[in-house]
Amino acid sequence: MELRFRATMERAFDQVREAVGREPESWLPGSKRADGTLVVDLGVGGPAVRVHRFVQVAVGPVQLFGWGIVVPIEWRAARHPRLYPTLLGYLRVEPLGPGHSRLRFDARYDPPGGPVGTATDRALMHRVARASVGDFFQRLMGCLAQASASPGS
């Protein structure tokens, strides 16, 4: 299953590129190191009621492509990973005129559980995945905006 998110940020491309070049904990939302592993809080809902799960995250090196950058991001559930899909995504950042950048997060996952898991995903779980990854993307934009506003921090 594929997920795609796009947005424009009011930050210059060079600022965002520099922020993404720092340690992932400085720009990934809800991230921390646990026993040397990068972990992110992934979920849906608001402050009063939030359903969440911690995922182990691997962030690849920043790579140049065309006129922008791309960063591979992979995650799997920190607990009971066989019960949840592994997601492989790519964060793309491109310049979009003076003082603006375009962010894209394109991801793919395969539901666990064979044909039954695929049917369940199509009926219900894809909406949950879309909501939780969409929430992650919105929080990611906020973290990148903050990280790119304070150079070198």
SSE blueprint and pairings:
Blueprint: E1 2-9, H1 13-20, E2 31-34, E3 37-45, E4 50-59, E5 63-65, E6 68-77, E7 87-95, E8 101-109, H2 114-149
Antiparallel strand pairs: 1-8, 2-3, 3-4, 4-6, 5-6, 6-7, 7-8
Helix pairs in contact: 1-2
Polypeptide structure, described:
By secondary structure, the protein is α+β, with helices and mostly antiparallel strands. Helix content is 29%, strand content 41%. It is built from two helices and eight strands, in the order βαβββββββα. The protein is globular, with a radius of gyration of 16 Å.
Please supply descriptive tags for the structure shown above.
153 residues, globular, alpha+beta, 8-stranded antiparallel sheet
Mean pLDDT: 89
Percent of residues in beta strands? 35-45%
**Overall helicity:** 25-40%
Q: Work out the number of β strands.
A: 8
Q: What's the overall geometry? A: globular
The largest sheet, given as strand count, sense and whether it forms a barrel, is:
8 strands, antiparallel
Task: Write the element-wise H/E pattern from the N-terminal end onward.
Answer: EHEEEEEEEH
Helix/strand/pairing class, anyone?
alpha+beta
Distance between the termini: 36 Å
Low-confidence stretches: none
Radius of gyration over all CA atoms, rounded: 16 Å
Query: What oligomeric state do the depicted chains represent?
Result: single chain
- Given the structure, what is the number of helices? 2
